[in-house]
Fold Flavin-dependent thymidylate synthase.
Amino acid sequence: MNDLASAPVLPSTSPVLYPLSDGIGSAALIQYAGDDKMIVNAARVSFGGDSDVPLTGRDEKLIAYLLKHKHGSPFEHNLITFKLVCPIFVDRQLVRHRVGVSKNEISGRYVELQERDYTPTQFRKQAPSNRQASVEDDGSLDQNAAREVWKYASETAFKAYHQLLELGVTREQARGVLPLSLYTESYYTFNVRSLLHFLELRDHEGAQYETRLFARALGELAEPLFPVTFKAWRSLNSH
Ligand SMILES: Cc1cc2nc3c(=O)[nH]c(=O)nc-3n(C[C@H](O)[C@H](O)[C@H](O)COP(=O)(O)OP(=O)(O)OC[C@H]3O[C@@H](n4cnc5c(N)ncnc54)[C@H](O)[C@@H]3O)c2cc1C
C-alpha cells in the first residue's frame, strides 16, 4: 500500500516563483503529501482494488474518468502547502475559497507591518462591458501620472502608519490606514480537489489579473507532484 507517512516532504530549498515579477510577491512550495497513485487507490478501495504497484495506463484512465464525472473525494487524500506573499487585495479573493483550504496569516496586531506594497508595472483600464473586469491600456492612460499617484498614496499611508505608532496608537488600529496593495504573507494548504476548483475559478480570464498570476503559480508548483491528474485536468478544462 502507498504509505502516506513516508510521502515526500520537501527539503529546505523548495521551489519559489515570483508571480508579480517584483522580487517581493512570491509563491513557494513548502511541503506535500500524496501522489497520483494515492488518488487511484482511494477510488479503488471501494471494491478492494487498491494496491502498491506502480501507476498503470488503466490507473491514468481512471483518474481522467474521475475528473470527468466529478468524483471528487479520491482527490482529497493529499495536501500541498504553499507560502504566499501577495497583496492584501489578492489574498482577499483567495480567502473566499472555503472548502478544503487551510490558512494562517501574519498578524498586524503582533508585528509592525513591513513597508512593502505592490505597484503595478502597467496600469489597466476599466472594461467597457464587464463591470468587474479590466482591459489593457490602449495608450490613452497616462501611466506615469498613475504611477505617481500610487506612489504618493502609498508613501502617505506608510508615513501615517508610522506616525500613529510613534504617537502610541496600538498596531491593530494603526494598520487601518495601510493600503490594499500592502503585502501580506500566509501559509495555504490545499488538497488536489480544492486546488483544481480554485484554479478553475482563479486561473480564468474572468479573474483579476494579479490573482490569476498567483493561481497559475500554484498550479505550476503543484503539477509536478500530481502529473497524471494535472494532465487529465488540463485536457478536460483546456487549461
Ligand atoms: C471571477 C470571480 C469574481 C468574484 N466576485 C465576487 C464578488 O464580487 N463578491 C463576492 O463576495 N465574491 C466574489 N467571488 C467569490 C465567489 O463568489 C466564491 O466565493 C469563490 O470563488 C469561491 O468559490 P466556491 O464557493 O466555489 O469555493 P469554496 O468556498 O471552496 O467552496 C467549494 C464548493 O463547496 C460548495 N459549498 C461551499 N460552501 C457552501 C455552502 N455554504 N452551501 C452550499 N455549498 C457550498 C460549493 O459547491 C462550492 O463550489 C468571485 C469569484 C470569482 C472567481
